[in-house]
Design brief:
4-stranded antiparallel beta sheet; about 250 residues; single chain
């Protein structure tokens, strides 16, 4: 009867490139890396024997940990909506799948051109497949971010309304349209707009100050303001006032 070699953790070493990440070695060989919190969560220590099922679970935890950490870094740059985050992760998964297809083709290319194998790294001909996360991992990351309040559509809507085109000016209608495309519920959009300190007159005046010189007539400026989503009466009033205030041309 063939003896199966026990899988034992032989070393836990800090990762060089990523802070708070630990490289796990099984039987003297690198197996995967985990966040420090995951090392504690799974009670890993040198000498612990792992079953094949436990190793597979930890490898998946490694992939999830990397995905969560990179997504958290992304959402902390500025507030993000849930839909924005989901779309970001789905696009990332799509790109990784495409990259893996390229790497599979690279393997064939190097087999057909063995003289290039020693220069593959130099030529950036990569063949090692990327670790892929799943659609389920995406939803688990989003769930965790929501639980920790790193994702919050209400907070995002308020931030967006107060900061979008703050110097350039923006209409309420355009804000509604943009937030709707980012997956924000209509009720949250209305609440954010109603509690905002932004004033339609001030917003339209910002745009006129920045854009009016590009238009030779009140009609053209009025048409531009209407396209930006401002109401007709307010746009007409501000356009007329602006052109009346211009010095007469010689």
């Amino acid at each position: 009867m063939e003896l199966i070699e026990a899988k034992k953790i032989t070393a836990l070493k800090p990762a060089v490139r990523i802070e708070n990440r630990v490289n796990v070695f099984i039987n003297e060989k690198f197996a995967f890396s985990l966040d420090l919190s995951q090392i504690v969560e799974y009670k890993l220590k040198i000498g612990k024997v792992l079953t094949p099922e436990e190793i597979e679970k930890l490898k998946h935890a490694s992939i999830f940990g990397k995905l969560y950490a990179s997504t958290l870094e992304w959402v902390l740059i500025r507030p993000r909506s849930v839909k924005e985050t989901r779309d970001h992760l789905r696009l990332k998964l799509l790109k990784q799948n495409q990259e893996n297809k390229r790497r599979e083709k690279n393997k064939t290319y190097l087999k057909e051109n063995p003289e290039l194998k020693s220069r593959a790294k130099e030529l950036k001909i990569y063949t090692k497949k990327l670790e892929l996360f799943s659609s389920e991992d995406i939803e688990a990351v989003i769930k965790k971010l929501l639980e920790k309040n790193y994702l919050n559509d209400k907070t995002f809507a308020n931030f967006y309304v107060e900061n979008r085109f703050l110097k350039k000016g923006i209409s309420e209608r355009r804000l509604r349209e943009e937030l709707r495309k980012k997956g924000i519920d209509a009720t949250l959009i209305t609440e954010a707009l109603e509690t905002s300190s932004r004033d339609p007159e001030a917003e339209i005046e910002k745009i006129i100050k920045k854009r009016a010189k590009k238009y030779s007539s009140p009609e053209k400026l009025l048409a531009y303001l209407l396209r930006q989503g401002f109401p007709y009466e307010l746009s007409k009033e501000k356009t007329t006032k602006f052109f009346k205030a211009l010095p007469p041309q010689l």
